[in-house]
Amino acid sequence: MLKYLDEYRDKDLAQNLVAQINYASKKSIRIMEVCGGHTMAIRKYGIQNLLPPTIKLLSGPGCPVCVTSRSFIDKAIAYSAMPDIIITTYGDLMRVPGTSSSLLKEKARGADVRIVVSTLDAVKIAKENPEKTVIFLGIGFETTTPPTAIAVLEASKIKLKNFLILSAHKLMPPAMAALIDEGTLIDAYIGPGHVSTIAGSKIYKPLVNQYDISVVISGFEPVDILQSIWMLVKQIESGIPSVEIQYSRAVSQEGNLKAQNLVNDVFEPCTAFWRGLGAIPKSGLKLKPEYNSFEAESLLPLEIAEKPEPKGCLCGQILKGQKIPTDCKLFGKTCTPEKPVGACMVSDEGTCAAYFKYNDY
Amino acid sequence: MCLSVPAKILNIEGSNAKATVGGSIINVSLQLVENIEIGDYVLVHTGFALEKIDAKTARETLAMLTSMVEENPEDMIRFIEI
Q1: Are B51 and A90 inside 8 Å of each other by CB?
Q2: Residue range B56-61: average pLDDT?
Q3: Beta bridge partners of A169
Q4: Interface test with A, best of B20, B46, B77 (most A CBs within 10 A)
Q5: Residues contacting residue A255 through CB under 8 Å, at least 6 positions apart
Q6: What is the pTM of this model?
Q7: Interchain contact B50–A (C-beta under 8 A)
């Protein structure tokens, strides 16, 4: 199987696709990718430099770390300062700046903040520390929500009383719609691969019907992305927008029904605050009332308002595809991966980090 | 964080499996998937298998892309030269 991975990086295949795109592309179009993995792959392989001038690539709000609001980090930090609390989180979140600190800084100051690679590790920590309250920071899109649902169900099954979720889980289609509503000019989306593995290609159909935009769900290898762009160009040139799956080895129309059912059992939609995009109705997920005993904000209420982004930081507009990192005066100067000011520079999948890492400026 | 890696299932015990990724052996939960067998490739994300990777469709995609060149040889040559 892994030999296919090499073939998806095959230079001749990629060159053929570039030629096909050049041949087919007549109209000027703007294509946005809404997955941090795609952003990194596009920059790493220099795909933007292979395309004709008719095609402009934009990066969208597809990095779950980047769109996590400052108030969410502030809340996590406030919890970490309470007695007998253990914060558990994926490592990416550690350096994300809140209003005046980060989880990493608080850990250095003595807060009990632990990185986990799986939600089940967080449940294990709760089991092993019955005298403490363990809060898991649930972030991410359709891909990361099912593991959080499993953690809640596991904690419920073994009647854990000291395991809580602070949920910032989000849904991708409402954000894709919100960008168009806000006026970002987008003709087509490169659909997120692993969000779609779980949710299926069907989640984008209402978007295509409402906005007449094209969607192709792509894999992450260079040939995958070039083929997806080619498919989008063909759709747009034909004038018939639709949802297509390029990443068919991992994505189906229906998606992973088992995972979807688990999420629907545990979560329900709510308004969510996105860094850069603001509040979007029905774009977030919160625990259903029957799982309220696992909801951190119900049991340990906090009043923390959303604060504006740091002065000069363009993360908000970059996440909306309205600016690019090099438009930001902080980029590469006061804002670097070692000392990030904005969230787009923090995450390995952030647009600014991708531009910085691959010297695309 | 949203990156997932393909891993080959080595053994299965209940809903847990051991799998190889680039020479390393990792623990994988099979709670989100069904009908996984030893030798299958799965996409692993934060310790969970999200889906089986379908080798047949991977091969078909590559075959289709390879045959593209044969369909439009003159156009392809023209643009590759550019």
Answers
A1: no
A2: 80
A3: A140
A4: B46
A5: A196, A197, A198, A199, A200, A201, A202, A203
A6: 0.91
A7: yes
